[in-house]
Amino acid sequence: MKRIIHCFLLLAAMFFVCCSSEDETKAETPVPAPTPASENTTGKTLVVYYSYTGNCRTIVNTLTSQLTADVVEIQPADKTQRYEANGYAIGTQLLNAIKANPGSASSYPAIDPVSTSLDDYDNIIIVTPLWWSQMAAIMQTYLFQNADAMSGKHVAMIVSSSSSGISGVVADAKRLLPDVEWMGDALHIRDANRSQASSLIADWLSGLDLQRASAQVMNITIGGKTVKATLADNSSAQALYEALQHGPITYDAHDYGDFEKVGDLGQSFPRNDEPITTRPGDIILYQGSSLCIYYDTNSWNFTRIGRIEGMTQDEIKDFVRAGEGNVSITLSLGNATAIHQVSSNAAALKAEGYISIGGMRVASPSRGIFIKDGKKMLIL
Ligand SMILES: Cc1cc2nc3c(=O)[nH]c(=O)nc-3n(C[C@H](O)[C@H](O)[C@H](O)COP(=O)(O)O)c2cc1C
């Protein structure tokens, strides 16, 4: 009899361990790997720009204050060139070489390698200066090298000139990118309308056929610091977005499993559970009412809510204050003031100067919110 009772107790203990471990072992349960395809159509926008004297950089600053986008700056390999010297002789020389043989890679001036993969983006906005009524030679190199990768993408262009018309630049873009889908006419910003650049860009953006440009963004605030997160394209993220339209949601969160900061939102949202292996920066809805911000990897069946892009794992850990126990997290809508940037040129970001709220380095900012030496400042 004693043996039977022991067996019963053992079975009961095993049953209890099995049942109660569901919440505790979500890290260990094997699930199929997620299909990466769903991540390939995020409606993300990449801004690619070149700027010799700073006008296009300023345009990109304005653009990224109105649009969620990653940014890549194209840099010439030879940074000693002065394209305007001797009556713009070098600029002319570079353009003539391209004109003489536009199909040959050796006709184009060398640029620094760009590590950002175009595969990650649906929309690409080119911001380029005009040189002698053509596209600046440095930008032509990038487009020549990436024409295949841009094939089928949705592309738009902003051209900056002193005064000349941009039809030659548009023709260059069409020659270099024969297989892209143009989202609308190019925007021309010249010295005479430069002071209205912000409203010109806003009008232009509203008329662009940006693919899923409505990809919604929410702010996450922890310990006084706010970053932007792009919301996923599902009914769960949409429901959260709609809830946030009524006001911010603040909840307490704690570390779990050394891979996430999780907390109860105090309300339930629709579930779109699927097998997901998380990456740092992923925002996940667990059991319909808990929000997890991941700073490491975990595999489970749960709902994708969104993602914090452009931050390293350490930066995300630092942001969520991983390991520090309870933190208060506020989700909200509106303009975030996070640096949120992908750059081909990390050195440019580290250089001295101001960083815009879009994450751009600005030599001499005119107006707006900038970060200098780690401090946020408003320049009027
Ligand atoms: C080599 C070179 C050629 C240029 N040619 C013209 C031109 O033909 N017409 C014009 O209006 N501006 C011309 N510009 C001026 C630039 O298009 C204009 O300043 C633009 O805003 C520069 O952008 P950035 O400051 O981003 O380099 C030229 C500039 C350079 C460096």
Summarize the structure.
This protein has helices spanning 2-24, 55-64, 85-100, 137-150, 167-176, 197-207, 235-245, 313-320, 346-350, and strands at residues 45-49, 70-73, 123-131, 134-135, 154-161, 181-182, 187-190, 217-222, 225-231, 249-256, 260-264, 274-277, 282-286, 290-294, 299-307, 327-332, 354-356, 361-362, 368-372, 375-379. The chain has 380 residues and is of the alpha+beta class.
Layout of strands and helices, then pairs:
Blueprint: H1 2-24, E1 45-49, H2 55-64, E2 70-73, H3 85-100, E3 123-131, E4 134-135, H4 137-150, E5 154-161, H5 167-176, E6 181-182, E7 187-190, H6 197-207, E8 217-222, E9 225-231, H7 235-245, E10 249-256, E11 260-264, E12 274-277, E13 282-286, E14 290-294, E15 299-307, H8 313-320, E16 327-332, H9 346-350, E17 354-356, E18 361-362, E19 368-372, E20 375-379
Parallel strand pairs: 1-2, 1-3, 3-5, 5-6, 5-7
Antiparallel strand pairs: 3-4, 8-9, 8-16, 9-15, 10-11, 10-16, 11-14, 12-15, 13-14, 13-15, 17-18, 17-19, 19-20
Flavin mononucleotide binds at residues 51-56, 83-84, 88, 91, 129-133, 160-164.
